[in-house]
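Appendix B. Chain record.
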Amino acid sequence: MGNKTEGRYSHVVHSFAPVYREDSEILILGSLPSVKSREQGFYYGHPQNRFWRLLAELLGCGIPKTIAEKKDMMLSHGIAVYDVVLECDIIGSSDSSIKNVVPVNLKKMLDGSRITRIYANGRLAGKLYSCYLEPQTGIPATVLPSTSPANAAYNMERLKDAWRVIVSGVAE
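Structure tokens predicted for this chain:
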């Protein structure tokens, strides 16, 4: 899904469902799945993205390998995962190229869960959330440093320090 040619925009439509259930209390939002994630059909699919390793370490779990293991790890700790962008025009996986944004609708998710804390994975997700979604949800998002390999300023230890807020009060 999407043209990988550098310099060319592709129209991308988010193609997989949010991960949550009625007892979810925390929502982690990315901006839009990368090319690798879209190819795999699940969140944070780039092998160099530190999301799954980071959350596993913070939650005291083994690093999940399969989509089912990833879903189970998040749901068993009351954590939901989704993205801010439902569709947009983008060049490859370049967040900075995103334009013509159509945001997701969080109403069904928020009405069908106990989510009260929202975290944005990276500045762009935070900016898009505050622009498009916070006016409807009324819930401010805490912006955390991106787990993307492009965020070289944050090594794993710095990410863990910043993301530790996620596990304060999560279900065991």
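Further analysis of this model is presented in Appendix C.
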